[in-house]
Amino acid sequence: MAEKKSQGFWVIQLTFLVALYLQALPMPDIVLYWRPEWISLVLIFWALSLPQRVGIVHGFAWGLLLDLIEGTLLGHNAIVLALLGFLCNRFYQRVRMYSILKQSALVFLLVGISQLVFQWVQGIFGAMSGLGFLLLPALVSGVLWAWVFTLLQGVKRRFALA
């Protein structure tokens, strides 16, 4: 049983690592605003599917790694992803009952809130960026939620994670 838990831990971390890679992938500036929040999507999925194993600590740790890779002030993404993990752990029983369409709308809302909190934290430290395209990543993340959910649900079933 301990080996299964260990295997599940590494599978979850590998999905976060792939999301981190996709998040840090260089893109042209014109497409950069349309990039989905991959780490947020993976965090939302695992926090809703396995709330006893993934949550605030995962969000904080992977947010710190994202801060290091993106070169932002240490803690910006960590705070935002920890908040996202907290919200998902808090309401996972309700969200699991929603249809995929309603979950997509909720993912748009959660990622939008995290984008606004990120901008707010950046504004506190004087590194505010333009607010023009702020919610585009949230919109794209909401649209891609059904695909990400199906993909990660297959991974969860394949490795019998529970």
Q: How would the blueprint of this fold be written?
A:
Blueprint (H helix, E strand, L loop, with lengths): L1 H23 L4 H4 L5 H12 L6 H15 L5 H21 L3 H25 L11 H23 L4
Helix pairs in contact: 1-3, 1-4, 3-5, 3-7, 4-5, 5-6, 6-7
Describe what you observe in this structure.
This protein is mainly α and 162 residues long. It is built from 7 helices and no strands. It is globular, with a radius of gyration of 15 Å.
Observed structural traits:
162 residues, mainly alpha, 0% strand
Low-confidence stretches: none
Query: Taking Cα atoms only, what radius of gyration do you get, to the nearest Å?
Result: 15 Å
**How far apart are the termini?**
11 Å
Mean pLDDT: 91
Question: How can the largest sheet be summarized?
Answer: none
What is the succession of H and E elements?
A: HHHHHHH
Helix content: over 70%
Q: Helix count?
A: 7
The portion of residues forming beta strands comes to under 5%
Shape: globular
Number of strand segments: 0
Structural class, please? Answer: mainly alpha
